[in-house]
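Protocol step 4 of 6.
Sequence for Lysosomal cobalamin transport escort protein LMBD1 (Cyanoderma ruficeps) entered exactly as in the expression construct, tag removed. Do not edit the line below.
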Amino acid sequence: MAAAASDLLTGWCLFGLALLAILIFCWVYVRKYQSRRESEVISTITAIFALAVALITSALLPVDIFLVSYMKNQNGTFKVWADANVSRQIEDTVLYGYYTLYSIILFCVFLWIPFVYFYYEEKEDDDGNTCSQVKTALKYTLGFITICAVLLLIGAFVPLDIPNKKNSTEWEKVKLLFEEFGSSHGLTALSFSISSLTVIGMLAAITYTAYGMSALPLNLIKGTTSASYERLENTEDIEEVEQHLLRIKSKCRDGRPLSSRDRRALQQLEERLRTLRRRERHLKSIEKSWWTKFCEAIRPLKIVWGVFFIIVALLFTVSLFLSNLDKALHSAGFDSGFIILGTNLTNPLNMLLPVLQRVFPLDYILITTIVMYFIFTSMAGIRNMGIWFFWTRLYKIRRGKTRPQALLFLCMILLLIVLHTSYMIYSLAPQYVMYGSQKYLVQSNKTVDGQPRNVTLVSKDCDADAPEDQCIVTRTYLFLHKFWFFSAAYYFGNWAFIAVFLIGLIVSCCKGKKSVIEGEVDDDDSDMSDDELSVYYD
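Step 5 output, structure tokens:
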């Protein structure tokens, strides 16, 4: 018992350190990308908090799997301290953790982030008083609150299984709805709302994560072009544009006005020249910076990381393909949400996890690595593509120049993607996500000459056939499969994810090296933006 308490205390200490590391990372990440000229305290705090919630929520899945596995020995028996009451307390603690984090996500997505976004938009459009800005922001945020309320009501009062009583009155039916809502403690309502957001997160993962999984490793492997080489090319472009400008201006030396065509060309060339000179200043700063020299020194390490990331991406994609193929061949079909218990077609991740279970804590390290990889590739995808609404680009994510609204969108997208992460991991290793490394005892009868002799107990990995009192299901699984139609949507989303990843892989392979100032200089930038160069390159 003392050893168990010591292990739990150590676990809480590690959790505290991980929480501190997450907060430090979120602060550094937001400060790295936010614009220094447009930074706001409220938007900065909101972005840091939302990003921290996303990372903490993503870390809850490995913790859930670890806790259900930690209560049992490798021989299939429960540990001495893990009686029924302790097991129930641990399950409830994890469940309350999900309640808390998912409720915070709903609060961020439907109230806090929209309010801060519209408040900042109103502040830019109108220089009026604060009360007017707050009222306008609340007016627009009310639409998001209404959507959240509708989702909660649908989840709470539309049960999946309603007894078909022909003689029951309308009041009895309404009473039944309230009784079911009270018995589930709001779990169904919260699960429906979270599942609805998870579908949106699935679309975001298909758009950003699938591309980031291919772009991030290949960018690390290929690297960027040389700053000195780009500067030489840029100087040649400046000289060429200046010559064009001289030729056009020479036409009006005798006092004749320029034609409308020449005036348009002159304006375009002057804008082009301003952009090239900004590029020149950026390239000059990067060429002299210590950060560039450091990146060149660790270039071999970047290649190693790129190869590692592409291996993880291929492992992830192949496992997801085999898992989806298993569902297509062996599930009950669309009406059941393509849900299967156990696996009929094995995949690399399912083969690797049981091997790693033998050496603690390698299996948890792998799951945590996949979850974190999923998050960071999502960040890379959003950073490379920007934030889009259908075919319209709303915002760009650029180092030191990202607007507060873009950071809020970035954090909201990550919150939605994190919700989809749990189902992606479940698709890769359903049995492991349900039971972790738990085993249970079954009787094995040895027969001699057709007669039963010795009855022994052997341990077996927990699966759907295990007795309910012998294997504890993770709380993650309970949230994932409340509604079959969401599971069906996730199934088709996995196929779309694989397709987008393959397309992104082909595109990334065909593209050349990125510019060393990729995304740092655009035509719509002002000359004042160059003042922020010293933050990163000096």
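Step 6, annotate. Residues 206 and 496 are 7 Å apart (CA to CA).
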